[in-house]
Amino acid sequence: MERIYVHPLPVRIWHMINAAGMVLMILTGTQIRYVGLIDVLDFKAAVNWHNWIGFVLIGNYFLWLLFYLFSDKIKVYHPELSPVKHFRKSFMQMQYYGYGIFRGSPNPHQVSAYEKFNPMQSMMYQVVMMLLLPVVYFTGILLWDVTRFYGMVELLGGVRVIDTVHVLAYIFFVFFVLFHVYMGSLGHTPTAHYKAMFVTGYEEVHPQHGEETAAVKTPAA
Amino acid sequence: MSSARLPAGLTAAVASIFLLFSTGLNAAELDPAAALSTADKQCLACHGSEGMTKELPGGAKLSLHVAAPDFAKSVHKALGCAACHSDIDPAKHPGVQREIKDRRAYSIAMTAICRQCHDGAFKQYEASKHANLQRQGKNIAPVCTDCHGSHAVTPKTAYETCVGCHAADMKSHETWLPNAALHLEVVSCAACHAPAVQRMVDLRLYDGAAKQWIVEADGTRQFETLAKSMDTDGNGLDARELRDMVRQVNDGNIAGSKILRGRIELRADVEAHQLAEKSQALRACDSCHRGGAEPFQNVTVSVVGPDGRPLRYNAHKEVLSSLLSVETLRTFYAIGGTRTELLDVLLVLALLGGLAVPIGHQMMKRIVQRREKAAAAGAPDAGSENKNT
User: Fold this and answer.
1) Residue B58 class from Cβ within 10 Å (0-12 exposed, 13-18 middle, 19+ buried)?
2) Which residues on A lie below 8 Å from B353 (Cβ)?
3) Any idea which fold A2-217 has?
4) Chain A neighbours among B 150-209 (CB < 8 Å)?
5) Relative to the CA of A28, which of A9, A75, B123, B215 has its CA 20 to 30 Å away?
6) In chain A, whose CA is at the least distance from the CA of B372?
7) Does the pLDDT of residue B383 top 60, yes or no?
């Protein structure tokens, strides 16, 4: 079993804050949207929590952004530029999750510090981090004070358009969180990825081609 | 996307409607006083003079000036001077003058005249905070003419009327009400400060390019004609009919500058008189921010009429939650209260999908492993594959 340091401390801190924040945003957002159907928290309190947690998450997003902008680890987000290669690898990954994993087949993606995402994760996280989170934060800021940002709200089509985009992103994140939590349990043990992402930073990987080593690979940076 | 188009002739008429919704002046607007009755003109021959005053006991002066153009544009122009001032005998006037103690006392006394026609409004007012203060002798308490004016009575919006005295109170909303300025813009004061009223949403046509409300030209009934032509089944405008109406107003371009701006108002404007104590005003957010909230159960579409009063046409309440509202009601949205139903369906699907993935995946795992086990039992050498993940 090989241990590879793939989740640096700033990324783990960002992820912890993000995980707690996104869950709380979904819960408070659900309360705000469904008063009457769900009455756990007072509407005004839910709005206040939603706003404050939102600002924390926006700040946290910049922690993530700055870390990767000033680190060579940004390579983990580099897209595979060859579509044929990307789809071939994605297909193998789908085959693994759809069948191979049940039979104990090896994961076709070999994790390393600079290639920690499999092709499907890579695509998903690029969309989430570069598109969906900025969109949900931006629309959230506009909705936080519609009067202050009246000009921008009008330019983008009006408050209902902004809200619809915000809610569509929320709906996606409801699915994403459930999906993400489950996928995180599919390591070599159900808690392996959780330990790595929240505590140690080290992923435990079975070496390919039967090369067993006791060495622990430590991060270059 | 279908569009309910008008017959060619009617289309031309409708197209001209909104060209006529303009600020163009007609002869009556140039000299509105010309349309007054001879009797009224006789009164205004003297009272139309600026600076005409009456000295009251104590030395104060009461203005007796009536601006003829303003009176001629007021909602009371058809009644004429004598309707409210029937105590004046033209044969003896101005020789015999009425004794007036002070301006305030005169205003209070004149409320009896208002009541002769506006008894319903007066009854609402009598139970109000304003009436209570007036009965307590507070001179600051408004009576009819303080809000509505005496001779230039026009259908002011409630907001303008309230702000006249409560400008400072507007600011105080910011201490507890999130997005206070927005709330004050889209919620009529009385909708919260008269808690017993019935509310509704009024969607009013607004010209975003000209930055002004669309006003119907006098005597044309253009808005009603347009609304009826869109309301093909005659039961009020549904979401599709409303979308077609907005498109028609914008010459076929749904994203045009003429938009519907929504506001929570009272179903019966007269109920605005029953203003309650401040402590009784609605403060609960979920009065509006919940599905099925009372204000969203009734919807009207309107334009400003020639006299300033809204001309309304009924719409279905579903126009607020239809997906089409993203096009037609771009600027009106109350979180929780007017949420789009289709998004609720998508949320349920996202939840089910998020739960179906682990359940489905684990079921697949069991099926595959059971088959593997069965295969291994059938062929003992077949189950020796590496268990790496």
Assistant:
1) exposed
2) 175, 179
3) Fumarate Reductase Cytochrome B subunit (1.20.950)
4) 178-179, 181-182, 208
5) A9
6) A103
7) no
**Domain ranges across chain A:** 2-217
pTM score of the predicted model: 0.83
Partners of residue B340 in chain A, C-beta under 8 Å = 164, 167
Residue pLDDT, tens place only, A152-163: 999 999 999 999
Q: Which residues of B145-174 are buried (b: 16+ CB within 10 A; e: fewer)?
A: bbbbebbbbebebbbebbeeeeeeeeeeee
Residue closest to A29 by CA, chosen among A169, A180, A176, A178: A169
- B372 contacts A103? CB cut-off 8 A: yes
Q: What is the DSSP letter of B320?
A: G
Domain boundaries of chain B, sorted by first residue: 1-28+196-339, 31-154, 341-377
SS (H, E, C) A162-204: HHHHHHHHHHHHHHHHHHHHHHCCCCCCCCHHHHHHHHHCEEE
User: Across the interface, do B361 and A182 touch by the CB < 8 Å criterion?
Assistant: yes
List all residues 6 or more positions away from A85 whose beta carbon is below 8 Å from its beta carbon.
none
B93-148, pLDDT tens digit by residue? 887 677 788 889 999 999 999 999 999 999 999 999 999 999 999 988 999 999 98
Q: Looking at beta carbons, which residues of chain A come within 8 Å of B372?
A: 102-103
Tokens of B293: 């909230």
* Percentage with pLDDT > 90 across chain A: 65
Here the tokens at position B251 are 């010459």
Pairing of strands B199-207, B299-304: parallel
Separation of alpha carbons B210 and B50, rounded Å: 35
Confidence label for A206 from pLDDT (cuts 50, 70 and 90): confident
